[in-house]
Every structure is written in C-alpha cells, then in structure tokens.
Design a protein that fits this description.
The protein has 87 residues and is mostly beta strands. The chain has one domain (9-86): 10 Kd Chaperonin, Protein Cpn10, Chain O, CATH 2.30.33. It is built from no helices and 6 strands. It has strands spanning 9-14, 37-43, 56-59, 65-69, 72-78, 82-86. Strands 4-5-1-2-3-6 form a 6-stranded antiparallel β-sheet, with no helix packed on it. A hairpin with a 2-residue loop joins strand 4 and strand 5. 18% of the residues are buried. InterPro entries: Chaperonin_GroES (IPR020818), Chaperonin_GroES_sf (IPR037124), Chaprnonin_Cpn10_CS (IPR018369), GroES-like_sf (IPR011032).
C-alpha cells in the first residue's frame, strides 16, 4: 500500500531503538515510551516542508496520527511537529 501525504504533512516510519540499562538488562516493549525519532518515508507537496525522504527526524512526543502500513508503525505528522533533523 502506498500513502502520499497532502499539503505540509510528512509520513514518518517510527524507529525503535533497543534500550537497555547500564548493567545490560533489556527494557521490554511494554515499559518503553513511544519513540520520538523516525525516518521520512514520504513528503507532501506543501511549500513549507523542509525535510526530504530518507532523512532521520526528531518529532514532538504526542504529535501526529498513528497508522499501520504493511504491519509497520508509521505517523502522519504536520511539518510543524518535526523538531529537528538528526544527522
């Protein structure tokens, strides 16, 4: 399935990093917060969009609308909800 965001919206695939404590214990998925980083999959045709496909971005904690595409978690965000580009 292909999704193309409209206007200044951005489709982001959420990236979950495996977390563990300093002593080496892995934190289970149920105890983790929602990830705040992701990779831009598609960009709308709005003029105010400043990110490109393939860039890794940091976004606001409760931003966007969660959707599943091919059993993978994605977010549709407004470009205003993107806080930074991670390099």
């Amino acid at each position: 399935m292909q999704v193309r965001p409209l206007g200044d919206r951005v489709l982001v695939k959420m990236v979950e990093e495996q977390q563990r404590t300093q002593s080496g214990i892995y934190i289970p998925d149920t105890a983790k917060d929602k990830p705040q980083t992701g990779v831009v999959v598609a960009v709308g045709d709005g003029e105010d969009v400043k990110v490109k496909e393939g860039q890794r971005v940091l976004f606001a904690k409760f931003a966007g609308t969660e959707i599943k595409i091919d059993n993978e978690e994605h977010l549709i965000l407004s470009s205003e909800d993107i806080l930074a580009i991670v390099e």
